[in-house]
Amino acid sequence: MTSSAATFVVLGLVTRRPGSGYDIAAFADRSVRHFWPISRSQLYTELSRLEELGWASGTAVLQDRYPTKRVYEATPAGLAALRQWLDSAPRQHRQRMQDPVVLRTFLGPHMSRDRLADQLRAHREQAETLRAELSDVVDHLDAKGPVGPHRFGRATARYGILQAEATIAWTQEVQAMLDAEPDPETG
Amino acid sequence: MTSSAATFVVLGLVTRRPGSGYDIAAFADRSVRHFWPISRSQLYTELSRLEELGWASGTAVLQDRYPTKRVYEATPAGLAALRQWLDSAPRQHRQRMQDPVVLRTFLGPHMSRDRLADQLRAHREQAETLRAELSDVVDHLDAKGPVGPHRFGRATARYGILQAEATIAWTQEVQAMLDAEPDPETG
DNA sequence: GATTTCATGTAAGACGTTACATGATTCA
DNA sequence: TGAATCATGTAACGTCTTACATGAAATC
Questions:
Q1: Which nucleotide is nearest to B93 (CA to C1')?
Q2: Chain A, chain B: beta-carbon pairs less than 8 Å apart
């Protein structure tokens, strides 16, 4: 039974907010998506793993209008494992990032200027959407007061906002560059 | 013979700067590392793939002081394949990113404040180093004049700089938050 | 009647990393 | 003498995604 960083992501989510896989997926989408996206199927895999390890316990909860769900919560052993992992060596788990739009910009000399401009616009719009969503999260958490564990959730949302703003500024910068040179050569 | 995005990253690198695997690795480190990191072994794998596909041709070059190297350059078929890929549907190849430090911040309630502060400092220093490296790249490219294919390389370096600056600002923000609340509880 | 929400999982495979393996030359 | 540079690859493994599979209830 091996555990990866994703195991601890899910364990962290469960710690914050116990619930079914379905619930946790929704929570993950609002919280960790912009710095540690996780697929639905991996989520369920990790929940099973957590239960096998004794780090979370699942309980079947009957509902009358909806299917029975399995609600997970962290066990004391799970909390201990999480803290030990966090305390352990910074684990040079390299910051992975792949940005297809930046790649396309890099390969710009091979693209039509209009097509690149389209991609940049789409990218900017995505970043604007993300910024808006995360701003809502921050506002919502601010309404709860300046203390408590959601301070940290707020901090990670701020990270996404700052990155999104950098992305928006960058797309505008590149667009300005494209506009400045009006030669539509593809080669 | 399947080709992934990484295949086209390497093909793009070869297009820009023909050379040996070793040369290309060095170039990748200065150019695409911050938005599409690639391991050395994957590089060699992709170069073999490119040759098998007929998208790049490798030629053995003898050297007297150093081992013989295999120099690659893109073929016309490779250029065509690259352009077709770039022209094809924006390929919802999701922007992958995993940031361990942001994750640790999210799990802040389970960490000692000092340990988190250490990680944030290390992260900020890494971002500062990256910003400095990329600033050098930009300055270097600016010295070559405002036109030519390196405009795009400059643009992608600018991306890294803006992201690094956002990261630096964020770590300072979080550090200020930690400093504001002097309760060293770990639970 | 169609779509969305709720709910959970498996199986196959793509993708990418680390560790292993080798060895000459140059420079301090 | 030791480290760094130059140079290339394989093998094993870990990680994660997509597609597949199912099905009831609620809402439009």
A1: D17
A2: 190
